[in-house]
Amino acid sequence: VQLVESGGGSAQTGGSLRLSCAAPYSIYCMAWFRQAPGKEREGVAGIFSDGTTNYAESVKGRFTISKDNAKNTLYLQMNSLEPEDTAIYYCAADLALGDHRWDLPPLGHYDYEYKYWGQGTQVTVSA
Hints:
- This protein is mainly β.
- The protein has strands at about 5, 10, 15-20, 30-35, 40-50, 55, 65-70, 75-80, 85-95, 115, 120-125.
- The strands form two sheets. Strands 2, 4, 5, 6, 9, 10 and 11 form a seven-stranded mixed beta sheet that branches.
- The radius of gyration is 13 Å and the shape is globular.
- The mean pLDDT is about 95.
């Protein structure tokens, strides 16, 4: 399954960027993870097809995840960007052990729960 990401780039502190991830078909659970230089990959935001969302504490109130089920496309609207948001952002999809083990889309370091991954897109935030 190929996930195609777009929308990364550069922004200044306080700016905004929007990421997109196109999937070939409807997938119940999708999420965004990120990996900063020298750090482990971490979950940023996730969403179920029923609209249930989950966010990392560090992005709550600044980032919004959404999903267009008709277009099989996942989005991440990132506002009030900070230099600490600089990372490669990855789209992740489909829970390996089934959709019903989780009440919320898994984030944190649960990247192993996801079967499919995008190629990654760089987000750089300058002070």
